[in-house]
Amino acid sequence: MKYLLQKDKNRRQLFLKQEGKWLIFRSLLHNQGISLEFRKFLYEKFFFSVLVLAGSRYRIKNRCILTGRGGSISRKFRISRITFRELCNIGKIGGISRSSW
């Protein structure tokens, strides 16, 4: 699991590094004031040579920071539902109480 956490961390760093380039590239591609031929040229040359696809924001996966679990992650706490439940039961997360019926 440590490998997956490190891989996700590297992708996040790469995304932050390339975010400005992605924004410029997308704005140029969607600009209707630029000719279609120039936009096609930008797509063919710039996209595959400069930007690394591993740095795309769609490749970033939310993972639990404690266990590395990849599914059902709470955005606020960045932990999985299972870890969240365990920590709430032992009282490690303040302000959260179990509800009973």
What does this structure look like?
With 101 residues, the protein is an all-alpha fold. It folds into two domains: 1-60, no CATH class; 62-101, 30s Ribosomal Protein S14, Chain N, CATH 4.10.830.10. It is 51% helix and 0% strand. It has three helices and no strands. Helix 1 (2-30) runs antiparallel to helix 2. The longest helix is centred in the first third of the chain and has 29 residues, at 2-30. It is elongated.
Q: Number of helical runs?
A: 3
What is the total number of structural domains? 2
* Assembly level: single chain
Uncertain stretches of 5 or more adjacent residues? none
Classification by helices and strands: mainly alpha
User: Helix-strand pattern, N to C?
Assistant: HHH
Proportion of helical residues: 40-55%
Radius of gyration, in angstroms, nearest whole number: 20 Å
Any idea what the shape is?
elongated
Kindly, what is the distance between the CA atoms of the first and last residues, rounded to a whole number of angstroms? 37 Å
**Biggest pleated-sheet summary:** none
Hey, roughly how much beta strand do the residues contain?
Answer: under 5%
- Count of DSSP strands: 0
**Overall residue-averaged pLDDT value:** 82
